């Protein structure tokens, strides 16, 4: 499903975010991608979604070598990947129905089919009946569930999520994670980048750990299940230290980072599909 062979990612400013990364995630697997801030988690997800391209090495996603995906084929490539973000990226001036329908409209799917699929996706995240609300009428957890419904409405075989529980309280985090689990149980491959200790503790699934862009650990689910839970004190201290470090995210890198990520902004998606994007 996802295969990396000696993948490197170097950004134009010379920062090497991923170094010689080799990894295999099989169809139907669920895994966490962990590592301190700046370890390369988002960069890896961006390569998988073709927001960025590898500088070196081979990357296969959904059976396709990304090197062979031309710019014009990127929208079709992305239709087979559901993406969930910490900040939902919902359009606040559109209804929940419109937000979830967006990927189908962009894909040129017809009206009746859209209605059926949107309702099915909202049902799967427990929000059927909220179609006519706008995002601000929903709680943060509900908004995140709308983001998940939008990610799965095209029935992608692969779901990737970048810190999807970052803004949620513990109960909502577990609820969101259970939704991912249910999709995985019906065959969707799921990769979740997360710092969330609660999730890591409650869900003994494969854990792929990056450190300074390199693979620092890859523990299968059965090993995780037999390990003691992570030590919250030491992990939190490490995360606090990360938050205080300034070298991992220099302002220039953050500014540049917002460029490619914007490609996934729903409005950009529409523009891209209509050929109005630069
Ligand atoms: N667009 C960019 N241009 C230049 N450097 C970048 C860019 N995006 C990320 N980086 C750098 O690449 C490294 C890895 O960043 P990345 O965002 O992938 O890490 P992360 O593990 O997702 O971190 P976090 O948990 O804080 O989101 C960091 O040193 C970062 O500053």
Automatic annotation (TrEMBL):
SUPFAM superfamilies: P-loop containing nucleoside triphosphate hydrolases. Belongs to the ABC transporter superfamily. Pfam families: ABC_tran. Signal peptide: none annotated. It comes from Steroidobacter denitrificans. InterPro entries: AAA+_ATPase (IPR003593), ABC_transporter-like_ATP-bd (IPR003439), ABC_transpr_LolD-like (IPR015854), Cell_div_FtsE (IPR005286), P-loop_NTPase (IPR027417). Part of the ABC transporter FtsEX involved in cellular division. Important for assembly or stability of the septal ring. This is Cell division ATP-binding protein FtsE. Keywords: ATP-binding, Cell cycle, Cell division, Cell membrane, Membrane, Nucleotide-binding. One of its GO terms (biological process) is cell division. It is found in: Cell inner membrane; Cell membrane. Residues 2-237 form the ABC transporter domain. The keyword Cell division applies. It comes from the Bacteria. Residues 221-278 are annotated as: Disordered. Homodimer. Forms a membrane-associated complex with FtsX. The gene is ftsE. GO terms for molecular function: ATP binding; ATP hydrolysis activity; transmembrane transporter activity. It is a peripheral membrane protein. The keyword rRNA-binding does not apply. PROSITE patterns: ABC_TRANSPORTER_2. Its main location: membrane. GO terms for cellular component: plasma membrane.
């Amino acid at each position: 499903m996802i295969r990396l062979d000696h993948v490197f990612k170097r950004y134009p400013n010379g920062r090497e975010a991923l170094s010689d990364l080799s990894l295999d995630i099989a169809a139907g697997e669920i895994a966490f991608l962990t590592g301190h801030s700046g370890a390369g988690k988002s960069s890896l997800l961006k390569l998988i979604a073709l927001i960025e391209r590898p500088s070196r090495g081979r990357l296969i996603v959904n059976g396709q070598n990304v090197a062979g995906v031309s710019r014009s084929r990127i929208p079709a490539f992305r239709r087979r990947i559901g993406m969930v973000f910490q900040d939902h990226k919902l359009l606040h001036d559109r209804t929940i129905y419109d937000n979830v329908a967006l990927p189908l409209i962009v894909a040129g799917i017809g009206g009746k089919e859209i209605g059926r699929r949107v309702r099915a996706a909202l049902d799967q995240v427990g929000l059927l009946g909220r179609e006519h609300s706008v995002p601000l009428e929903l709680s943060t957890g509900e908004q995140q569930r709308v983001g998940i419904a939008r990610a799965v409405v095209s029935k992608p075989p692969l779901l990737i999520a970048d810190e999807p529980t970052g803004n949620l309280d513990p109960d909502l985090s577990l609820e969101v994670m259970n939704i991912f689990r249910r999709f995985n149980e019906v065959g969707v491959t799921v990769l979740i980048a997360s710092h969330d200790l609660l999730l890591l503790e409650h869900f003994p699934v494969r854990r792929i750990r990056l450190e300074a862009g390199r693979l620092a650990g890859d523990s299968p689910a059965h090993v995780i299940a037999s390990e003691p839970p992570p030590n919250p004190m030491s992990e939190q201290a490490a995360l606090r230290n990360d938050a205080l470090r300034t070298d991992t995210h220099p302002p220039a890198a953050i500014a540049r980072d917002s460029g490619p990520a914007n490609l996934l902004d729903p409005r950009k998606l529409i523009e891209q599909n209509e050929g109005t994007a630069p």
